[in-house]
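We close this part of the discussion by returning to an individual protein. The amino acid sequence and the backbone structure tokens for this protein are reproduced below:
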Amino acid sequence: MSNEVQKMKTTQDSNCRCFAHYDSQRLLAQSVTTIHSGAGSRYPQGATIDLENDRFYISRQTSGEYQDQMIYEYDLNTQQLLRNQSVPIGVRVYLEGLVYFRNSSQQLCFIVPVDRYGKFGIFNFDTGQMEKEFSMEGNFKVGVDNHHKYFLCGRNEDPLKDPNANMDGVFLYDFASVVAGDPVLVETVQFLHEQMFINKVQGITMIDDYILLGQGVEYLSMSVLDLNGRLVHKASYDSKEIITLIGGNPDSTNLQVECEGISWITEDGRTYPILFPCSQGKASIVKLGDLQMVRI
């Protein structure tokens, strides 16, 4: 582990160190899962929240040989759709993670994968244009740390193989260098694929000196790794309790809860993970670690 990454450590032992608190959860935002339009039925792939501007964002697209990736913007207070933009990226490139920033003109931009591996771009949401494209090792599972020092993307040793089946680590790039389109690799964190992928990894993020994985197709789970790639915490969440939290029917025969992403928010100086469970037609953003809320 490099000295630069070691310097990330903070004294906020209330952030990622109190892993037991992650079973206290609160519903923050919600939309529908599937939107029927374009080439087919667009399903969520990622989500994030912009607390400063009272917005949340969901990426959706149709699985398979379609090129209909879109990002949707919602009002965090009313949950109403405000606008959406089509993202010009390759076929079978999934927006599994939404990393945003504002450029020098205060326009909203997202760092997006352009190909399944090795090519990224800066997409200007306000203009609907891809401002620049550049080469960078990594796959389409992306995230950012809570200090905006590092841009994360998944690593698989063979770029031609499916990241869902072969991802074995995470690249950490200097965030500012990625925004500039001239990425500088800071660290590579490798882990055992078989250990981590028992439940499908659907998103990655980072809080202080820990990498968090949002996981699950049938049920919701989360893993926490240190910067040596060691698993330090893993939790699975009861599907009936998650469905109750998001306003679904826990007595239904359909108890599938799929995780479609993970990110973080910072409130009053403390950072909380947020998960993106989708179930029974509801795409929900849930905050973890809020001790005043529902325990799952």
Summary: Residues 1-16 have pLDDT under 50 and may be disordered.
